[in-house]
Amino acid sequence: MLKTQFIEKSIPYTGPELRPHFILSQFKIQGSAVIAFRGPCDVKTDELVDWEDRLVNDSIRAAEMVHFLGEFFGPTLREGVWTQRLFVSILGEVLREKFSVSTIRTGDDLWIGDRKLSVSIVTSSAVSQLLHIGINIDPAGAPVKAVGLSELGVDPVAFAREALTRFAAEFSGIVDACTKVRPV
User: Fold this and answer.
1) CB of 108 closer than 8 Å to CB of 134
2) Secondary structure class of 80 (helix, strand, coil)
3) Domains of the chain
4) In sequence order, which residues have a C-beta less than 8 Å from that of residue 104 and are 6 or more positions away?
Protein backbone atom coordinates (compact mmCIF):
# COMPACT_ATOMS: atom_id res chain seq x y z
CA MET A 1 0.00 0.00 0.00
CA LEU A 2 1.29 3.46 -0.90
CA LYS A 3 0.81 6.19 1.67
CA THR A 4 0.26 9.77 0.53
CA GLN A 5 -0.11 13.07 2.33
CA PHE A 6 -0.33 16.72 1.41
CA ILE A 7 1.77 18.74 3.87
CA GLU A 8 0.12 22.07 4.61
CA LYS A 9 3.23 24.04 5.59
CA SER A 10 5.65 25.59 3.09
CA ILE A 11 8.93 23.69 2.88
CA PRO A 12 11.94 24.86 0.84
CA TYR A 13 13.39 22.16 -1.42
CA THR A 14 17.19 22.36 -1.72
CA GLY A 15 18.19 18.78 -2.60
CA PRO A 16 19.19 17.07 0.66
CA GLU A 17 15.51 16.20 1.21
CA LEU A 18 15.99 13.51 -1.45
CA ARG A 19 17.36 10.97 1.00
CA PRO A 20 16.24 7.68 2.54
CA HIS A 21 13.72 7.93 5.37
CA PHE A 22 13.26 11.70 5.02
CA ILE A 23 9.48 11.18 4.92
CA LEU A 24 9.61 8.90 7.98
CA SER A 25 11.94 11.14 9.99
CA GLN A 26 10.11 14.38 9.21
CA PHE A 27 6.47 13.29 8.92
CA LYS A 28 6.29 9.89 10.69
CA ILE A 29 5.06 8.14 7.53
CA GLN A 30 6.67 4.71 7.33
CA GLY A 31 6.96 2.61 4.19
CA SER A 32 6.50 3.48 0.53
CA ALA A 33 5.02 6.96 0.39
CA VAL A 34 4.64 10.15 -1.59
CA ILE A 35 4.15 13.52 0.05
CA ALA A 36 3.37 16.83 -1.61
CA PHE A 37 4.08 20.32 -0.34
CA ARG A 38 4.54 23.86 -1.59
CA GLY A 39 7.74 25.80 -1.31
CA PRO A 40 10.61 27.51 -3.08
CA CYS A 41 13.22 25.47 -4.93
CA ASP A 42 16.93 26.19 -4.94
CA VAL A 43 19.09 23.16 -5.72
CA LYS A 44 22.74 24.07 -6.18
CA THR A 45 24.98 22.08 -8.55
CA ASP A 46 26.62 20.16 -5.69
CA GLU A 47 23.23 18.86 -4.52
CA LEU A 48 22.07 17.60 -7.94
CA VAL A 49 21.93 13.81 -8.32
CA ASP A 50 21.67 14.02 -12.12
CA TRP A 51 25.25 13.71 -13.42
CA GLU A 52 24.35 15.16 -16.80
CA ASP A 53 23.24 18.39 -15.06
CA ARG A 54 26.15 18.40 -12.56
CA LEU A 55 28.76 18.13 -15.30
CA VAL A 56 27.49 21.34 -16.93
CA ASN A 57 27.18 23.16 -13.57
CA ASP A 58 23.40 23.34 -13.82
CA SER A 59 21.07 24.22 -10.95
CA ILE A 60 17.34 24.21 -10.28
CA ARG A 61 15.48 27.27 -9.05
CA ALA A 62 11.94 28.58 -8.84
CA ALA A 63 10.25 31.01 -6.50
CA GLU A 64 7.59 28.40 -5.70
CA MET A 65 6.78 24.84 -6.72
CA VAL A 66 4.51 22.01 -5.75
CA HIS A 67 6.98 19.32 -4.72
CA PHE A 68 6.20 15.61 -4.84
CA LEU A 69 8.72 13.64 -2.81
CA GLY A 70 8.51 9.86 -2.83
CA GLU A 71 10.29 6.86 -1.41
CA PHE A 72 9.62 3.33 -2.64
CA PHE A 73 10.92 0.21 -0.92
CA GLY A 74 11.58 -2.88 -3.05
CA PRO A 75 11.77 -1.77 -6.67
CA THR A 76 14.90 -1.47 -8.78
CA LEU A 77 16.13 1.82 -10.20
CA ARG A 78 14.60 0.91 -13.57
CA GLU A 79 11.23 0.34 -11.88
CA GLY A 80 11.70 3.64 -10.07
CA VAL A 81 12.14 5.41 -13.40
CA TRP A 82 9.01 3.69 -14.75
CA THR A 83 7.17 4.84 -11.62
CA GLN A 84 8.45 8.38 -12.21
CA ARG A 85 7.28 8.41 -15.82
CA LEU A 86 3.87 7.04 -14.83
CA PHE A 87 3.52 9.72 -12.17
CA VAL A 88 4.50 12.48 -14.61
CA SER A 89 1.90 11.12 -17.06
CA ILE A 90 -0.73 11.22 -14.31
CA LEU A 91 0.22 14.83 -13.53
CA GLY A 92 -0.38 15.68 -17.19
CA GLU A 93 -3.76 13.88 -17.08
CA VAL A 94 -4.82 15.82 -13.98
CA LEU A 95 -3.92 19.12 -15.65
CA ARG A 96 -5.82 18.19 -18.80
CA GLU A 97 -8.91 16.61 -17.22
CA LYS A 98 -9.41 18.80 -14.14
CA PHE A 99 -7.94 22.14 -15.25
CA SER A 100 -8.19 22.06 -19.07
CA VAL A 101 -4.44 22.60 -19.45
CA SER A 102 -2.74 20.64 -22.22
CA THR A 103 0.84 19.61 -21.63
CA ILE A 104 3.40 17.66 -23.60
CA ARG A 105 5.39 14.99 -21.78
CA THR A 106 8.95 14.48 -22.96
CA GLY A 107 10.54 11.72 -20.90
CA ASP A 108 10.14 12.78 -17.29
CA ASP A 109 9.22 16.43 -17.93
CA LEU A 110 6.05 18.36 -18.71
CA TRP A 111 6.06 21.29 -21.11
CA ILE A 112 3.65 23.99 -22.25
CA GLY A 113 4.93 24.86 -25.69
CA ASP A 114 8.63 25.61 -25.31
CA ARG A 115 8.36 26.44 -21.59
CA LYS A 116 9.20 23.88 -18.94
CA LEU A 117 6.61 23.19 -16.24
CA SER A 118 8.43 20.51 -14.24
CA VAL A 119 11.67 19.08 -12.93
CA SER A 120 12.02 15.44 -12.04
CA ILE A 121 14.58 12.90 -10.84
CA VAL A 122 14.77 9.37 -9.47
CA THR A 123 17.77 7.92 -7.68
CA SER A 124 18.65 4.90 -5.58
CA SER A 125 19.54 4.78 -1.93
CA ALA A 126 20.85 1.74 -0.08
CA VAL A 127 17.29 0.82 0.92
CA SER A 128 14.91 2.46 -1.57
CA GLN A 129 14.19 4.38 -4.73
CA LEU A 130 13.76 8.13 -4.22
CA LEU A 131 11.66 10.49 -6.35
CA HIS A 132 11.36 14.25 -6.62
CA ILE A 133 9.03 15.99 -9.03
CA GLY A 134 8.66 19.76 -8.87
CA ILE A 135 5.86 21.55 -10.71
CA ASN A 136 6.37 25.29 -11.03
CA ILE A 137 3.82 27.52 -9.39
CA ASP A 138 5.91 30.66 -9.86
CA PRO A 139 8.96 29.92 -12.02
CA ALA A 140 10.74 33.20 -11.22
CA GLY A 141 14.48 32.56 -11.07
CA ALA A 142 14.38 29.40 -13.17
CA PRO A 143 17.53 28.92 -15.25
CA VAL A 144 15.42 27.88 -18.27
CA LYS A 145 12.36 29.23 -20.05
CA ALA A 146 9.56 28.12 -17.71
CA VAL A 147 5.86 28.39 -16.95
CA GLY A 148 3.94 27.97 -13.69
CA LEU A 149 0.56 26.88 -12.40
CA SER A 150 -0.32 30.45 -11.34
CA GLU A 151 -0.05 31.69 -14.91
CA LEU A 152 -2.15 28.74 -16.05
CA GLY A 153 -4.90 29.45 -13.51
CA VAL A 154 -4.40 26.14 -11.70
CA ASP A 155 -4.97 25.86 -7.94
CA PRO A 156 -1.74 24.15 -6.80
CA VAL A 157 -3.26 22.54 -3.70
CA ALA A 158 -6.24 21.08 -5.56
CA PHE A 159 -3.84 19.88 -8.28
CA ALA A 160 -1.50 18.22 -5.76
CA ARG A 161 -4.30 16.51 -3.84
CA GLU A 162 -5.87 15.13 -7.03
CA ALA A 163 -2.48 13.93 -8.30
CA LEU A 164 -1.73 12.12 -5.02
CA THR A 165 -5.15 10.43 -5.07
CA ARG A 166 -4.79 9.27 -8.66
CA PHE A 167 -1.21 8.09 -8.24
CA ALA A 168 -2.06 6.12 -5.08
CA ALA A 169 -4.97 4.45 -6.90
CA GLU A 170 -2.73 3.55 -9.86
CA PHE A 171 -0.02 2.22 -7.55
CA SER A 172 -2.56 0.12 -5.64
CA GLY A 173 -4.04 -1.16 -8.90
CA ILE A 174 -0.60 -2.29 -10.09
CA VAL A 175 0.04 -4.15 -6.83
CA ASP A 176 -3.41 -5.75 -7.05
CA ALA A 177 -2.88 -6.77 -10.69
CA CYS A 178 0.27 -8.64 -9.65
CA THR A 179 -1.69 -10.72 -7.14
CA LYS A 180 -4.54 -11.94 -9.34
CA VAL A 181 -2.79 -13.76 -12.16
CA ARG A 182 -2.14 -17.47 -12.46
CA PRO A 183 1.50 -18.35 -13.22
CA VAL A 184 2.17 -20.23 -16.45
Assistant:
1) no
2) helix
3) 3-129+141-176 (3.30.930.10)
4) 110, 111, 112
